[in-house]
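Cont'd.
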Amino acid sequence: MTGKCAVVLLSGGLDSATVLAMAKDQGYSCYVLSFDYGQRSLTELNAARIVAMEADVVEHRVLRLNLEDFGGSALTDHNLSMPESDTDDVQEEGIPLTYVPARNTVFLSLALGWAEVLDASAIFIGVNAVDYSGYPDCRPEFIRAFEAMAALATRQGVEGKPIRIHTPLIDLTKAQIIQAGTALGMDYANTVSCYQADDEGRACGRCDSCRLRAKGFEQAGVPDPTRYQP
Amino acid sequence: MTGKCAVVLLSGGLDSATVLAMAKDQGYSCYVLSFDYGQRSLTELNAARIVAMEADVVEHRVLRLNLEDFGGSALTDHNLSMPESDTDDVQEEGIPLTYVPARNTVFLSLALGWAEVLDASAIFIGVNAVDYSGYPDCRPEFIRAFEAMAALATRQGVEGKPIRIHTPLIDLTKAQIIQAGTALGMDYANTVSCYQADDEGRACGRCDSCRLRAKGFEQAGVPDPTRYQP
């Protein structure tokens, strides 16, 4: 392998698509990893496939993980209803209902396994501590602790070349993320953020994720290419 | 839920079966987690089902994980041949061929997700730093780093009740593990350690894992109930 190489976690949403554009822009050969973990919106996975293809990545793998067996989240537990906001304040108190137990830990661990085999020097993940402050595994201190653990867990770490976890979005607002991606030529029409998107990838416009996204485009001063359900 | 509750990782091998017996002996209600990750020996998973049933656990879940897609290990890559020893020295130099990339990180992460949903206070894993010293993710410093990361990743950690990782075998020799399990009434005939066991769970007697196990019974002074291929 020539040049530097990274595993990039891609959900198909706006944030991770921006991270992929950033990793490419930094000169990494990108191996993209997505998860089919029983999330409600398979549309997001279809979006991930399109985004990865458009970004001309080296490889895109989708791992099936039946996390829905564990339950405990409105994102995977179909017996819980999705939170909807009637106000402009889309922040929730405490840990939100859409929290998937240990999700970023699981995703980063699997990315770490692939990175170790590929001898990749970096993993990119689109965690963000601004918009989703209720998730414990989106905090910078979690990421640093994961990196320290990974340095002890892997061959690369033992050999003194630990795999780094890159979180280029961690301190950005949604508007700043959209501005950065737009500057890199991202076409956000291919991304899906809605928890309840229909089969054609059209957003509901009502859930927290839709409201955050719409507000982001508005504040960024970038035209919103999101397709909404009629 | 009344009383204390733990997630126990169970492969169906001798070590993890002993850990399950120890967790039960310590008074934990045990939720047992196994993985079907493309390992050669599905016989080991059948052994896990029998061991879990015999131990009368609260629940046993088997998660399918297609780690074989990542390659890089003789345990999951069918193009690599298994190492066999012709000498009594079954230790290998450096990191062994049977190392599965980030395996314990991935297994512990998924156990963490389930533990968070169950509100379990502990995860038990049968890592051992004596017999398998070539695996970076079997070292005590890795386990402590994982625990520190987990405390930042989960709701329990945020609320000041971090989930603890228990590794009761970490400093024991194979003989000491067998003696401890035998004292707790373990029937090791149900466990499979062989990387190349046949469909009836009979061991090859030649691979490193078989040799370590046989030597363990010999040194423990416990009759070896292992069934070998004819």
